[in-house]
Amino acid sequence: MTEYTTIDQDRDLVLTRIVDVSRQKLWRGWSEPALLTSWFAPKPWTAPECEIDLQPGGIFRTVMQGPDGERFDSTGCILEAVAPERIVFTDALQPGFRPSAESFFSAIVTFEEVPGGTRYTAVARHKNAEDCQKHRDMGFHEGWGLCLDQLVAVAKSLD
DSSP string covering the chain, please? Predict the structure, then answer.
């Protein structure tokens, strides 16, 4: 699957970590809105709203809210959802594969079983190097890393 593993150093950001949680629990954290809202934004930010329809063309919408009340509403669509292996979504398209007026990135999140847990990989693909650098400067690695820590805590609490 080269389309998922080929990385463009100028336009892609990657976070990979092995975590001591099953991929089924990580999948639940990504696919169940009630769970996703508990970890999706790096604290002190929150994610008070989320809608997910895990089928190609289905909605992937989150609202992130800052400590001063600022809100960022992002609506896109699911491109692929293969439980418990991979979720692919983009803001380049709206639900139903309708083109979006704004586009910042597409994400590929994979969960691979490895000894001792799961290799979690999140790839953010950007349309150009400038958007990639903007996302890097916004703190992609730190923010997505903090969110992964929060996801792992949520996943460990699941039965």
Answer: -HHHH---TTTEEEEEEEESS-HHHHHHHHH-HHHHTTTSS-TT-EEEEEEE--STT-EEEEEEE-TTS-EEEEEEEEEEEETTTEEEEESSEEGGGEEPS----EEEEEEEEETTEEEEEEEEE-SSHHHHHHHHHTTHHHHHHHHHHHHHHHHHT--
Number of structural domains found in the chain: 1
Q: Answer for the pair 63, 69: CB distance below 8 angstroms, yes or no.
A: no
* 93 closest CA partner among 85, 83, 101: 101
Q: Is 5 part of any domain?
A: no
130 Cβ contact partners less than 8 Å away, ≥ 6 residues apart: none
Q: What does DSSP assign to residue 4?
A: H
* CA-based radius of gyration for the chain: 15
CATH number for position 102? 3.30.530.20
pLDDT 10s digits, 94-114: 999 999 988 889 999 999 999
Mean pLDDT within 19-44: 97
